[in-house]
Amino acid sequence: MLTSTQISSYNKNGYLVVKDFLSDTQRKLLMERAEVLIDDFDPSSSHSIFTTNEQERSSDDYFLSSGDQIRFFFEEKAIDSKGNFTVPKQKSINKIGHAQHELDPIYKKVINSLDIPEIGKQLGIQKPRKLQSMHIFKQPNIGGEVGLHQDSTFLYTSPKSCIGFWVALEDANIENGCLQAITGGHTIPLKKRFKLAKSGGTEFEILDESPWPNTALDLLEVKAGTLIILHGQLPHYSAENTSNKSRQAFSIHLVDDNCHYAEDNWLQSSI
Ligand SMILES: O=C(O)CCC(=O)C(=O)O
Fold first, then answer.
1. Which of 97, 123, 211, 269 has minimal CB crowding within 10 Å?
2. Which of ligand 1's atoms lies nearest the C-alpha of 253?
């Protein structure tokens, strides 16, 4: 649970860093489980790349129907122009998502042992719903950039309620593509929504035309086990990982079930 000082800090900055949120045992459980899931995954069954540049953000059926599944998305640079893998399978995955918190016994047990819903309530969510989980790899040398974005763009409710819980499974720093954020930027209006288009596929709806403020991003360098709580309107980013160290993280997003979940959000889940 958070102290009143931590809650004030979150409200002021739009994010909060909480050290030692996950134990070494819990981190290892998640990382070892991911390895087993990847071993069991047949890469010939899908070539879905998670393109981290927002304009090209993956919107194939495999991605769009992953809200209540456990699916595997490749790093863009893991597959060459001829469709051949440039790295071994374990090093090719950008992320696993988006429902392992419900469907996988090990993820579920670890996540349910954390007081994420209670913290969500402290931060204003009345009826917390764990909507989406992601195991993010930021693979050595090829880990893709994640463009500056606000999470409510992708998980939209009325009123807006999304909060991201991002946990470093390994040390995250400038070398391997740690998170970066505009401190206090959660007061910036939501720029756009990513949604299902009536004609099929997905589209962005522009909500606010103004440019991002000309402010430097703050580096959120953290040790393994640290939680970073991200307000749904906080602009955040991570650079490519050009180092030879991975930067694994686990994230889960809460929304308030008392708020209206948009029918045209890309993520639709039946669980
Ligand atoms: O892990 C990253 O590099 C980005 C994660 C992110 O932006 C998110 O979970 O919203």
1. 211
2. 9
